[in-house]
Amino acid sequence: MIQTGEALPHATLYEFFDSEQNGCAIGPNALDVQQLAAGKRLVIFGLPGAFTPTCSAKHVPGYLEHYAAFQAKGIDEIWCVSVNDAFVMGAWGRDQHTSGKVRMMADGSAEFTRLAGLEQDLSARGMGLRSQRYAMVVDDGVVKALFVEAPGKFEVSAAAAVLSTL
Questions:
Q1: HSE of 95 in the Cβ direction (CA atoms, 13 Å)?
Q2: Which of 10, 39, 103, 122 could staple 127 via S-S, CB 3.0–4.6 A?
Q3: Strand pairing partners for 136?
Q4: pLDDT value at residue 33
Q5: CB 129, CB 95: distance < 8 Å
Q6: pLDDT-derived band of residue 23, with 50, 70 and 90 as boundaries?
Q7: Which parts of 23-123 are beta strand (E)?
Q8: Buried b (16+ CB within 10 A) or exposed e, 4-35
Q9: Which positions are catalytic?
Q10: Is 34 domain-assigned?
Q11: What CATH number is attached to the domain comprising 71?
Q12: Is the pLDDT score of 21 beyond 90?
């Protein structure tokens, strides 16, 4: 598992754009994690799946609710990473009204999740390989703090909990 002080893995995440922006086309766009994180202070939170109960009712809404407070603490961007494709993450972002606040980053093949050592096997629940629930604070591509939930819990990766550590 990735540790505090380590660089984010060399991986590609995908983001769906409804309109052309910042040189990115409409639809899914491949983004290099290292390049995207360079020079920025980020909060990245990962969760088992788009449209799942805790993720939709608590995890994403908490980061939306505390968006201004994160900005006030010097966070440049908030990323939500899930092992779903960019089309699903785009639809979930529209449903959750994340535009301009939380970037919905697709890790469809679990490349980022596996390289960070944050995967879990939920095959017994019909979900296959997924992400653990976590949050991390990243500065210029280096993990400064990591909060990984115990199985079935939603405490340390919640927006309010992460915000209290900044």
A1: 13
A2: 122
A3: 44, 146
A4: 98
A5: no
A6: low
A7: 27-32, 41-47, 77-82, 102-106, 119-121
A8: eeeebbebbbbbbeeeeeeeeeeebbebebee
A9: 55
A10: yes
A11: 3.40.30.10
A12: no
